[in-house]
Write a structure and sequence with these properties.
The structure is a single chain. The protein has helices at 3-18, 23-43, 49-73, 100-110, 138-151, 160-163, 170-180, 196-208, 251-263, 266-275, 287-308, 355-361, 371-382, 388-401, 455-483, 488-511, 517-521, 526-549, 553-558, 560-597; strands at residues 127-132, 155-158, 183-188, 219-223, 236-239, 321-327, 333-334, 339-340, 349-353, 369-370, 413-415, 420-431, 437-446. Helices cover 52% and strands 11% of the residues. The strands form three sheets. Strands 10-9-6-13-12-11 form a six-stranded antiparallel beta sheet. Strands 2-1-3-4-5 form a five-stranded parallel beta sheet, sandwiched between helices. The protein has a two-stranded antiparallel ribbon with strand order 7-8. Helix 2 packs antiparallel against helix 4. The radius of gyration is 41 Å and the shape is elongated. It has 20 helices and 13 strands. Helix 5 (138-151) links the parallel strand 1 (127-132) and strand 2 (155-158). It is α/β, with parallel strands linked by helices.
Length: 611
C-alpha cells in the first residue's frame, strides 16, 4: 500500500468514527485513531503529510462539535453533518509545519472533552494518575481506573495489572510513571497485610514532586478501614462507605436517598476535587453538569470495595475456649519457600487468652503474654507437678513452626476453677508476609472417664485402675528384670523402656486429671488431704531421681551395677510404698463414695424386691 492509500484509509476510518453513536465508544476509537495518525505521519513525505494533518484537524473538530451538540440537545434533534474535506489540500505555508510533534500538538489543543469545552492552546493539560494497590485488591483498582477515565478522555490512569509492560524494565517504567503522574492514589484495605511496596511508591512520588509550587502533590488514600498507613497520615484520606437501603422505602425514595448519600460521601468529594484540578486549567469549570456522573462513579467505586471483601471474614466466633500462640518474625528464617521458625524455641512465642480461657487458667490477660510467663504461672498452680499436656503442646507447636506435621496432644488437664477436664486441640496456623505465625488452640472439654455425673468416683476409679496397672505392669515387672542378668544392650533397652513407660502412664493419668494435685486431693476428706498431698511430693522427687539416673544412657550402661542398685531402691522401695499407700486409702475412700451414692431408696429391700 502506497503513502497516498494509507492517508485515504485513515481519512475514511476517521469519518467512520463520526458515525459511532455511543459517546464512550466514539471517544475510545478516536484516541486509537489519533495514535495511528501520529505513527503514519512519521513515515510520510512532505507532499502527503499536510493532507493527513488537515484531515485529522477537521475530523477532531467534528467530534468536538458532535459531543457539544449531544450535551446541549440531549439527542432530541438530528446531529449536525460532518465537514466535507476539499478534494485537494494545499501544502502548508510554513516550512515548520509537519512531523508527529505537530500532529500531537494539534490533537492536544482541540481534542474533545466530555463537557464539550475545548481548552485554549497552551492551557491544555492531561491528568495522569498513578494507582497503587496490592494484587489482592485488583478488582478495586479496575473499578477506580474505569470510573476515573470515563470522566474525561484527558485522564490517563496507570495501573500495573494493565499498563506494566511484560518483560520490560518494570522498575524503570514505574519510576517514569511516578514522575509523570499528577495524582497518586493508594487503595488501602487490610491493615494486617504487607504494605511496604505501596508505601515505597507513595514516598517515591512524594520525593519526585517535592519541589512543586505550594506543595500541591495530590497524594491521597482510598480506604475502607479505620486505620491507614502512618507514613501517609498527613495526606488526604477518603473513607469508603456503601449506601444501605432502608426497609419500607420504595424505589423512588431509595434513589433519592442514595443520590443524597453519595453526594455527601468522602469519595464524591474526592472526585469533585479531582476533576477541578489544577485550578489554573481544570478538567472542567462546570461542576454542576458533572454531579450526576460523579454520583454514579462514587457508587461504583464504593461497591467495588464491598465486592472485594465479599469473601473476607468480618469476624470469628469461637465457641470452645481457645488460646492463640504467636511466633514473632525477628528470629524466623527463610527456607526459600517462605518464613520458617526453624530451630526456634518457645521463648520467642507469646500467648493470647480468650475470655473463657482466662477463667479456666485463672489468669487475667491484658494482651499478649510471653510464653515463659504463661508456663511459669501454670507451674505455680501445679505445685511442681509435671504439666504433660503443656509439654506435648509445645512439642506440637515447634514441629508445626518448623514446617512439619505435629502429633495430636493426647494429655488433658484439670481446671480447678470450674472442675472440668480439657484437652488442647491445635486447629489452625496463620502465615503472615512479615514472617509472623499464629497458632490457634481450642480447649475442648473432656468428661472424666465415663463418670461425668460423678466426678469424685470417676477420678478415684481411674486412679485405682492406673495404680493397679502401675504396680503389676511397671514396678513388679521392671524390678524382676533388674534382678536378672542383662548384657549391655538389654540393659540399655530396659533403661529406655523405664523412661518411656513412665511418660506413657503420666500421659494416661493426665487425661483423667490425676497429675493435677487438686483434682485428686479434693476426693478425700480433709483429714487425709495432707497425706495425699505428700504422695504427690514424694512421687515428684522419685520421678526426678529416676530420670536423673537414666539421663545419660551410655553412662548408665557403663555403671550398670551401681545404676541397677539405685533403680531397685527407687522402684522396689520408694515407688512401691507410694503405690501401696494410695491403693489402700484410695480403695477405702472409693468404697465410701460408692456406698453414699448408691444407697437403696427407703421402702425397698436390699435384693431389689417390692415395698
Amino acid at each position: 500500500m502506497g503513502e497516498l492509500d494509507e492517508v485515504m484509509v485513515l481519512v475514511r476510518e476517521g469519518r467512520d468514527i463520526l458515525r459511532t453513536r455511543r459517546p464512550n465508544e466514539r471517544q475510545r476509537k478516536w484516541r486509537e485513531w489519533r495514535e495511528q495518525v501520529k505513527t503514519v505521519c512519521e513515515a510520510l513525505d512532505a507532499a502527503e503529510r499536510p493532507r493527513l494533518q488537515l484531515s485529522f484537524k477537521a475530523i477532531t473538530q467534528d467530534i468536538t462539535a458532535l459531543d457539544q451538540w449531544l450535551i446541549d440537545n440531549s439527542g432530541e434533534l438530528d446531529p449536525p453533518p460532518p465537514q466535507t474535506l476539499p478534494p485537494q489540500m494545499p501544502p502548508p505555508t510554513s516550512p515548520e509545519v509537519g512531523g508527529v510533534d505537530t500532529v500531537a500538538a494539534e490533537g492536544d489543543c482541540v481534542a474533545p472533552t466530555n463537557d464539550g469545552a475545548a481548552q485554549q492552546p497552551g492551557l491544555r493539560q492531561r491528568t495522569r494518575v498513578f494507582l497503587s494497590y496490592r494484587s489482592t485488591d485488583e478488582k478495586i483498582a479496575r473499578a477506580v481506573k474505569q470510573e476515573l477515565e470515563s470522566l474525561d478522555d484527558r485522564i490517563d490512569v496507570f495501573a500495573a495489572y494493565d499498563d506494566l509492560r511484560r518483560g520490560g524494565r518494570w522498575k524503570q517504567q514505574l519510576m517514569e510513571e511516578l514522575k509523570a503522574a499528577s495524582w497518586f492514589i493508594l487503595i488501602y484495605t487490610d491493615p494486617e497485610m504487607d504494605w511496604q511496596w505501596p508505601i515505597y511508591e507513595a514516598t517515591t512520588f512524594e520525593a519526585l514532586h517535592a519541589g512543586q509550587s505550594g506543595g500541591d502533590q495530590r497524594l491521597c488514600c482510598l480506604h475502607d478501614t479505620d486505620a491507614r498507613p502512618k507514613p501517609l497520615s498527613e495526606y488526604q484520606a477518603n473513607r469508603i462507605s456503601l449506601f444501605q437501603r432502608e426497609q419500607g422505602d420504595d424505589e423512588e425514595v431509595t434513589e433519592l436517598k442514595k443520590e443524597r448519600f453519595y453526594e455527601e460521601s468522602a469519595i464524591f468529594r474526592f472526585l469533585r476535587d479531582f476533576i477541578q484540578y489544577p485550578t489554573d486549567a481544570p478538567l472542567t469549570t462546570d461542576i454542576r453538569r458533572y454531579e450526576p456522573r460523579l454520583v454514579e462513579a462514587a457508587h461504583a467505586i464504593s461497591e467495588s470495595f464491598v465486592k472485594n471483601r465479599q469473601d473476607s471474614v468480618t469476624h470469628s466466633t469461637y465457641y470452645p475456649a481457645r488460646i492463640e500462640i504467636t511466633f514473632r518474625p525477628e528470629r524466623l528464617t527463610d527456607n526459600g519457600n517462605g518464613m520458617i521458625a526453624r530451630g526456634t524455641s518457645m521463648a520467642l512465642a507469646s500467648v493470647f487468652l480468650g475470655p473463657i480461657a482466662q477463667a479456666i487458667f485463672r489468669l487475667a490477660n491484658t494482651g499478649d503474654l510471653p510464653w515463659e510467663e504463661f508456663r511459669r504461672n501454670l507451674s505455680d498452680e501445679a505445685q511442681g507437678q509435671s504439666l504433660l499436656w503443656l509439654e506435648q503442646l509445645e512439642e506440637a507447636l515447634l514441629l508445626a513452626a518448623d514446617g512439619r506435621r505435629p502429633d495430636p496432644v493426647m494429655a488433658t488437664f484439670y481446671s480447678v476453677s470450674n472442675r472440668r477436664f480439657y484437652r488442647p486441640l491445635l486447629t489452625r496456623q496463620e502465615y503472615y508476609l512479615s514472617g509472623k505465625r499464629t497458632f490457634y488452640v481450642l480447649l475442648v472439654e473432656q468428661p472424666p472417664a465415663d463418670f461425668s455425673q460423678h466426678e469424685e468416683q470417676g477420678i478415684l476409679l481411674a486412679g485405682l485402675i492406673l495404680g493397679s496397672r502401675f504396680r503389676f505392669e511397671f514396678i513388679d515387672r521392671r524390678v524382676e528384670q533388674l534382678k536378672g542378668e542383662l548384657d549391655d544392650e538389654d540393659f540399655r533397652i530396659l533403661c529406655a523402656n523405664i523412661k518411656s513407660q513412665i511418660s506413657a502412664i503420666e500421659s494416661e493419668a493426665a487425661q483423667h486429671g490425676l497429675l493435677d494435685p487438686e483434682s485428686l486431693i479434693q476426693c478425700f476428706p480433709r483429714s487425709d488431704q495432707e497425706t495425699v498431698s505428700g504422695w504427690y511430693e514424694r512421687w515428684g522427687a522419685v520421678r526426678q531421681e529416676i530420670f536423673g539416673v537414666l539421663e545419660d544412657e551410655d553412662a548408665a550402661v557403663a555403671r550398670q551395677p551401681q545404676v541397677t542398685a539405685q533403680l531397685l531402691d527407687l522402684l522396689d522401695d520408694k515407688l512401691r510404698a507410694i503405690n501401696v499407700g494410695f491403693m489402700r486409702m484410695g480403695s477405702q475412700r472409693y468404697g465410701e463414695l460408692v456406698q453414699a451414692a448408691f444407697k437403696p431408696k427407703r421402702g425397698r429391700v436390699a435384693n431389689g424386691g417390692g415395698a
